[in-house]
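Extended Data, panel c. Modelled sequence:
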Amino acid sequence: MVTNQKISELDYCYVSWELLQELEKNAFSRNECIRAFKKESNDRQSLITSVVALILPIILLGSIVFSNRAASLMYGSTGTTENIWTRVVGLLMLSAFLFLIVYMLSKELSKYKAFRPIKKLINQDLEANLRLEVDAIDQKASKIVNDSILKDSKIPEKFLSSEFLLVIIKYMESGQASFIKEAVYALQLDLKNTGYYANIFPKETLLQLEKKYLLNRNDNLAQKIELAEKND
């Protein structure tokens, strides 16, 4: 009777551990989607900033090349080609300098709150794709979180992490505990008296964080997107 219950409770711990592992992978996938969005967003903004920064140098070069004084600027007052390469290199360096100044200025200005609506408009399609991807991930997260094994768990919520479940499983497999309650009690004693496993004791478990996130996932996702954009 004890053996059957031990096996049953041990299996219960393994199923809980597998569910939490799935939840971790799912949360990682969400973070990867946001990371990919941030990269694509940064790449797009860099491209647009580069195009904007090119406008002034192009106007400068165009005004010189197509002006009536183009020949005199290139050949000088003597009309010879003696210093033409020096003048060409100087003109190119001036254009590069103007490009860098405008590029860096545009990058700095884009960090200000006033420019966020423009950034949001630029990334509108990227954000829409992100929300579609994250929606599927969130549905899976909701299914895991609401699974009866985790929702009405025999294990206290503060110990519902994959790390602590492995410790509880170890207690039961080694014979230190026959039931989940005994294993949890042994874990609590170790934490209190020896400090073992204190380094893996989180302020909030992933399960608690996911529950919090899912309560208002649209606003929470918007905050994650905004934070990703702020940390450019």
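The mean pLDDT is 82. This feature is highlighted in the accompanying rendering.
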